[in-house]
Amino acid sequence: MLKPGATIGILGGGQLGRMLALATARLGLQCHVFSSERDACSFQVAPRATLAEFSDRAALEKFARACDVITYEFENVPAEAAAFLAARKPVFPDPKVLETTQDRLIEKDFITKLKIATAPYAPVHSAAQLADAVETIGLPAVLKTRRLGYDGKGQAKIAKDGKLGGDAAAAWRALRQAPCILEGFVNFEREVSVVAARSRDGKIACFDVTENEHRDHILKLSRVPAAVSPALAQEARRIAQRIAEAFDYVGVLAVEMFVVRKGKGRTLLVNEIAPRVHNSGHWTIDGASVSQFEQHIRAVAGWPLAKPIRHGRVEMVNLIGAEVNGYARWLSVPGASIHLYGKKDARPGRKMGHVTRVFPAARQGAK
Amino acid sequence: MLKPGATIGILGGGQLGRMLALATARLGLQCHVFSSERDACSFQVAPRATLAEFSDRAALEKFARACDVITYEFENVPAEAAAFLAARKPVFPDPKVLETTQDRLIEKDFITKLKIATAPYAPVHSAAQLADAVETIGLPAVLKTRRLGYDGKGQAKIAKDGKLGGDAAAAWRALRQAPCILEGFVNFEREVSVVAARSRDGKIACFDVTENEHRDHILKLSRVPAAVSPALAQEARRIAQRIAEAFDYVGVLAVEMFVVRKGKGRTLLVNEIAPRVHNSGHWTIDGASVSQFEQHIRAVAGWPLAKPIRHGRVEMVNLIGAEVNGYARWLSVPGASIHLYGKKDARPGRKMGHVTRVFPAARQGAK
User: Fold this and answer.
1) Domain coordinates of chain A in residue numbers?
2) Cα–Cα distance between B172 and B158 in angstroms, integer?
């Protein structure tokens, strides 16, 4: 168990690292951000920072020496860097988790072995293999690179008639260079996620199931509680719990799922695992008694988790690209909390901030 | 109105500055902390910092150039330093407020002129004058230095029999060196405070009236809502509002008041004005939709205030001195949020952290 004043190293310097750094400060812990980006928005709030590449062994060595525990804010930390650090200081979650989640095929195999449902999928390591995969899975389907995809990058939908849509050129380019998987297209009713924390001693605390809406493959809106039955919500939390346990996970992870109709009922298919704090958990900063960021820091510090208590119905809206320029109008919306990430350049598709709105339970009836 | 990315200068580097810095970061603003203490706990969370004395003109000049707006986290910023800065950059609240609140006599006169009640008081500028003051005010009474008193320092109670109690030696030492006032001892039913924010365009938002318990003259516990009638709570907020307006105040201020019995009813006496965020408002971080720290930053940035919505009944406990060593037990208390200030040395009487407990409104009935 870390003592107050101890230092938590964070690999990656984006908004997730920034919000982790702020949670660290509340708890009287220090943080040290490691990022290769000069303008990393986490640097603005971290007392210590290293600007270096993940391949820079000397920088990693020095960073490890400065930290008591190390964690990450994004899942594409190179496996070698994570292993190098893990040989020197405790790294949570264990770098072996990254090896699973960095590869869509390994991740899907891992989930399947747990007897948790996913969309049908098949590996596509060559153009020739694609026809077989289409045969097995059927159309429509989505072709995705196995590695390094996020926010819809490196994906292409194949329509019922075999035509390619979406980021087709990129997908094919990637396919020529890197292995892919084909996933059956899921005609989902809604998307939900569970953000769960697991402590070093194996205790688990889940936040309420959150419903998510994407726009152009980027999360736009989260609502909690999700409009699902109590039984389905319970099942979603159980899935997250089983995944966390199978990983012997320490920290916060998010499991994205599709809700699909099945006969008269509904069932869940796991879409993706994010081995880190997650955009769909941002509402917890203002909407719950403990945030996902604090839960993550508690877990990696070896502290007990808090029991999350939600303050009411909550909505979270991402401010993407130029939308951030409209920040001022949110300042006067009752119950709205605005978060801006300190990024200078409002490029299209870039997450610049978010707004959380809490509708207190007592007032829900009056609305 | 400051744009995101602008820099707010904070004079003083204690826990109030630290929590202001964290609020600044959430809003995508930068902060620059100015403190003369090498170990200032705000430095750990501020992207920019100046370590210098308030008498260091060159450092003040450079600090002013680096900031877009300047504010303070403690009220004893020397008037000359504040005036020097105000000649260069906007300073909120106006330094003239400090001139009033830094001197108990001027402060009491200011409140009295607003026709707001205080305990009876009289200036005591010499030992000879004390007898007259005792004659006028009666005993018991409290002798206080006019300037630089806080947390009970520089105070001495004079009992009904004329005997001195409390920090008598210090009070008399101060009295020999500096002017004092004698205040009638108030036999109060409870102590309450109002934390109010006023924006640059004169709008006011008060947090709910808070009830405070002191131990050894240091705030130990705050509870909200205070156990006072709605009419008295309304009166308390009106008093805070009138004071803020009389100052043409910008930012957050706290007004401490005594609730005293008057016939069958209750009435309020103003005890003190704190021209800054205040310990009795710490509960707002976890217990309300907007914190006092964010309200202060919004106000000094020229942004609109948020409407505070409380999440339930709230209690805040200060962790003073060695009490902080018991932080671990709070980590598992349901609904409790712990804040540690990153101070190394847990000296007696030093504020090391606080804990907020929120009891959701919906569950109050079930308790």
Assistant:
1) 7-91, 120-184, 190-364
2) 12
* Beta-carbon separation of A339 and B27 below 8 A: yes
| Residues of chain B contacting residue A45, judged by C-beta atoms under 8 Å apart | 22, 25, 45, 47
Q: Which CATH architecture has domain B120-184?
A: 2-Layer Sandwich (3.30)
Q: Which residues of B are less than 8 Å from A309 in CB distance?
A: 334-335, 358, 360
Amino acid, res. A129 = Q
* Domain B7-91 CATH class label: alpha beta
Q: Do B190 and B259 meet the contact criterion of CB atoms below 8 Å apart?
A: yes
pTM: 0.94
Topology given in CATH for the domain delimited by B190-364: D-amino Acid Aminotransferase; Chain A, domain 1 (3.30.470)
Judged by CB atoms closer than 8 Å, whether chains meet at A44 and B27 is answered as no
Q: Provide block-wise average pLDDT over 10 residues at a time, chain A (367 residues).
A: 97 98 97 96 94 98 98 91 97 95 96 98 86 88 81 74 63 69 94 98 98 95 98 98 98 98 96 97 98 98 97 97 96 96 95 96 46
Residue of A nearest to B335 (CA): A289
CB B66 within 8 A of CB B39: no
The string of pLDDT tens digits covering residues B264-309 is: 999 999 999 999 999 999 999 999 999 999 999 999 999 999 999 9
CA–centroid distance for B232 within its chain? 21
The radius of gyration computed from the CA coordinates of chain B, to the nearest angstrom, equals 20
Q: List CB contacts (< 8 A) between A6 and chain B.
A: none
Q: Among partner residues B331, B337, B358, which is closest to A303 by beta-carbon distance?
A: B331
Non-local CB neighbours of A186 within 8 Å, separated by 6+ positions: A119, A258, A260, A269, A271
